[in-house]
Amino acid sequence: MTGITPSRRVRRTHFTDFVEAAGVKSYTVYNHMLLPSSFEGIEADYHHLKRHVQVWDVSCERQVQVKGSDAMRLIQMLTPRDISSLSTKKCMYIPVVDQNGGMLNDPVLIAAGSDTFWISIADSDFLLWVLAVAACNGLDVEVEEPDVSPLAVQGPKSGLLMERVFGARVNGLRFFECGRFEFHGDHMLVSRSGYSRQGGFEIYLENPKLAEPLWESLFKMGEDLQVRAGCPNLIERIEGGLLSYGNDMTRENSPLECGFEKFVSESLLDHCFGGRVLRKELDAGIKRKIRPVSIEGELPPCDRAWPLYAKGLRAGQVTSAARSPDHGTNVAIGMMSREFWDAGSALEVETQAGMRRAVVKASFWE
Amino acid sequence: MTGITPSRRVRRTHFTDFVEAAGVKSYTVYNHMLLPSSFEGIEADYHHLKRHVQVWDVSCERQVQVKGSDAMRLIQMLTPRDISSLSTKKCMYIPVVDQNGGMLNDPVLIAAGSDTFWISIADSDFLLWVLAVAACNGLDVEVEEPDVSPLAVQGPKSGLLMERVFGARVNGLRFFECGRFEFHGDHMLVSRSGYSRQGGFEIYLENPKLAEPLWESLFKMGEDLQVRAGCPNLIERIEGGLLSYGNDMTRENSPLECGFEKFVSESLLDHCFGGRVLRKELDAGIKRKIRPVSIEGELPPCDRAWPLYAKGLRAGQVTSAARSPDHGTNVAIGMMSREFWDAGSALEVETQAGMRRAVVKASFWE
């Protein structure tokens, strides 16, 4: 594997020292920051994640903080999802869209205070979009990237571990609910969320001095639960149909193509960026959608979009793929044209190592 | 060295296959794309670059293309530099600034056609800023990232090699001049520019089918010149005082702090983003500036900002550093407070491996 060169531009996090001590083997770069991508190896990490509990340094899920009297008004311009029901008790997944209907990011929106909101972003400098919209519309908001670093606790034993560190109340949170929980005198924002299907939490570290005590508490309290350092796992997230911005969708894709119809409120389409384009797309019918795809044979790393063909015609592309030990196949995510997106469609996929047979699945594996 | 995990999100370029065949040892990620950072090793690469000629895959210098009748008007809103003298024969370095006076990027502006402009960017998604400004102001422009991939030819023998591939006229270009030059029936945009002080060119590949013939021609024609694959070299660029966005400056810094006074036109400050903040800064006096710093002793990798102290007071920070074989010292770039920025100021720098003695230099080493 080719190495990654250290520089200030590829930012370390408040947890990088601990991640390195835990034996991180490879990184990716996400929002100009180090994101671990394997520890014992992707298959060993996968099996452990599905059985035990892992602590993930996902500091790279940076926050775009919007603060001020026009904050909600600004944020509602950014997304076709109705955010009026947002509260400090529940966070919200919001697709954000440019004037051409293209996905700019797929963040989670959090009410961190009464007029302070965090847009917890995937891998693009969405801050620049929000800053510009604020500047051009003369809105009463401050937009910045605060020093807030999410740490995820994921896996079937995550509830048990979190109870020990934050008290029983934390385990009462339901999916996407959040609250403030005491740790070392601080009140940390914790949500029941995370980039796996194994259940879990995200802790939003605001005071960097608590990085070490938090990491240490989780490992000390989780010793008998076989806690270890982990990271978003390629195999597990594909099995579960968790999309990755930059991989499975880009600015070339609309939220409708990504399966986010339920987050597109028709009544908002006159007011949000890209709304008119999305309305046209709804009227004309969505032309391509994300689908689970199963692929036969040995696969190289999916480091580029793989063209898909059906009966010699271009049918779409595969954008993430990995061998699944539990399902005995290669699990994959593809963007499929309407004519070919039905379950059972037989396909050929063109990888850098040659053509492989593939089939559209009815649902993700979970 | 920790490995980097392949994924579609960290994009390969049209030259990555050739870079890999040439034995790339490490990468960094720049604009969500692979950028080689060493081949034979950073010191061996450095000596070769200063003597011969190298071909660099800098496809990650993506273009923000602005096209349409309002293109120049839009771009002039983005920068305090007067761009009215831009022509298809000369490109222009333009700091771009947010409403708070912070640097968003430090790109090169190129007139690629009569109403088509390329903003050739450093490492931030400046596209999102430009898209939003265009959308919010209802300007008649199209903003996109075209499939344009710069390939740099750098080093003292670069003129000789470029003449052989593009004809003698290309060597008549002066620094920052550009033009179209024939290659395999195509007319490629070539500028005399690049991220080294050894002289060189950048070729803007538009037709991906020409990636292989272009790479091959450069290597075939340069065999006796000892051409080899290379990349921006950390040591050489610090010696030459070439700043790196994300390392030596961020959104926390104004263009004045970065030494770009000559690119700030006072008459434009009422009309560009951040102009009022820059005017206040000019009136109050610039508080900190970038300076060359020489550091004693063994250094760890400069993978974070290193605090600088003078007589126990915080004096600034070092943001890039490397051992220079030619100068027998550690060359470094720092951001220094006014009280301490004079040449000769004695400093202490706090690295992750301990304190080191340092001194402000009068000029970069080149």
What does this structure look like?
The structure is a homodimer of 366-residue chains. Chain A is an alpha+beta fold. Chain A contains eight helices and 22 strands. In chain A, the strands form five sheets. The first copy, chain A, has a six-stranded mixed beta sheet with strand order 13-14-15-12-4-16, sandwiched between helices. The longest helix of chain A has 11 residues, at 126-136. The mean pLDDT of chain A is 97. The interface between A and B is large, with 50 and 50 residues.
Beta fraction of the residues of chain A? 25-35%
Total number of beta strands of chain A: 22
On the 0 to 100 scale, the average pLDDT of chain A is: 97
By secondary-structure content and strand pairing, the structural class of chain A works out as alpha+beta
User: How would you sum up the major sheet of chain A?
Assistant: 6 strands, mixed
Quaternary arrangement of the chains shown? homodimer
Tally of helical runs of chain A: 8
Run of helices and strands of chain A: EHEEHEEHEEEEEHEEHEEEHEHHEEEEEE
Helix content of chain A: 10-25%
Shape of chain A: globular
As residue ranges, the low-confidence spans of chain A are none
| Distance between the amino and carboxyl termini of chain A | 29 Å
For the largest beta sheet of chain A, what order do the strands appear in spatially?
13-14-15-12-4-16
Question: What is the CA-based Rg of chain A, rounded?
Answer: 21 Å
What's a quick, concise take on this entry?
By secondary structure, chain A is an alpha+beta fold. Chain A is 19% helix and 31% strand.
